[in-house]
Specification:
By secondary structure, this protein is α/β, with parallel strands linked by helices. Helix content is about 35%, strand content about 15%.
């Protein structure tokens, strides 16, 4: 809803230096409304009591706008008319999604569910409170799609060959200054900059502790290692293989309060120090690159079956993958 975006911005403004670094897309206010039972389901757009509910929700929102944020109130009639426009636009595409997908499963069709954001942004298992407002785990894919959990048989986790993050929160393997800027400009499709905000992402070297934990809570059956080509400029590549916390070293991902105190334990691998873009066969990669991939595979405890070697769709190296 339009007011979700507004409330997101207003709350970040109110929090000031204690803000969460939100993308201001309205995600947290939207999920707050869902669980407060004042959100709108698609089916309600086609019901007889839509305007009545709009009035009730707007009354509640306006109390907050006026007394907490000191902002302009929402006009219920204008909002209702906008929702009618949305209703007419989406009407040809509305169906019983759960039945649609379960019928597809029964007929033997393949279904691809795609998740957004990483494991550490999960509301329950991530670095709370520096998380998103919904689950980012594969287990919740069945809930969102309305299919049985046992219908999901393959869980492919996408892992970068280095680390990156948007927003605030603990980031153990983070690097800074010129070292970070060099990796940032080489990474991603067009550098490591937020897709929504355009702001520079925080970057660091591969964190085996966090990535192994992420694969575990996802229930990964295989992993895809991306942007391996971005590391070709390095003569040596550090990998974070453990955390030092209060004088003790652990390979297990800790709770958020302990994570804030963690320092990285590094293992340095030899880099391949050359451009590898254009290589399509795994065996043609430099030995140092293959050793890097296989070291990560061992640390993840999940087989790496695909590697991306460039920003284009065809820049994929298959390593014993069924995909």
């Amino acid at each position: 809803m339009p007011y979700h975006i507004d409330f997101d911005s207003y709350e970040e403004e109110r929090l000031g230096k204690n803000s969460f670094g939100s993308t201001k897309s309205g995600i947290a206010p939207c999920y707050s409304d869902k669980y407060a039972k004042i959100g709108f389901q698609v089916n309600e757009l086609f019901g007889d009591n839509l305007f009545e509910k709009v009035q009730r929700v707007v009354e509640y929102k306006n109390v907050i706008l006026e007394n907490l944020y000191h902002k302009e109130k929402i006009d219920a009639k204008e909002l209702y008319e906008l929702m009618l426009v949305w209703r007419d636009a989406i009407k040809p595409y509305v169906c019983d999604v759960s039945k649609f997908l379960n019928d597809a499963i029964k007929s033997g069709k393949k279904i691809l569910l795609e998740g957004q954001l990483g494991s550490l942004k999960d509301t329950d298992h991530g670095i709370y409170p520096m998380v998103t407002s919904s689950s980012t785990l594969a287990g919740y894919g069945a809930i969102g799609a309305g299919i049985p959990p046992y219908a999901i048989t393959d869980i492919v986790t996408v892992v970068k060959a280095y680390s990156s993050a948007v927003g605030a929160g603990a980031f153990v393997s983070e690097i800074f200054g010129e070292e970070a800027e060099e990796l940032r400009k080489r990474g991603g499709d067009k550098g490591e900059y937020g897709a929504t905000t355009g702001r520079p992402r925080r970057v660091g070297f591969f964190d085996a502790v966090a990535s192994r934990y992420g694969c575990r809570v996802q229930g990964s059956t295989e992993a895809v290692l991306t942007v391996i080509d971005a590391l070709g400029y390095l003569e040596e590549i550090p990998i974070c293989v453990g955390y030092e916390i209060d004088g003790e070293i652990t390979r297990d991902f800790p709770t958020t309060d302990k994570l804030e105190k963690a320092n990285p334990v590094w293992k340095v691998l030899k880099g391949w120090n050359r451009d590898i873009r254009g290589i399509k066969n795994y065996e043609e990669l430099p030995i140092e690159c293959r050793e890097y991939i296989e070291f990560i595979e061992k640390e993840l405890e999940v087989p790496v079956k695909m590697i991306s070697n460039g920003p284009k769709r065809e820049d994929i190296i298959y390593k014993n993958s069924n995909l």
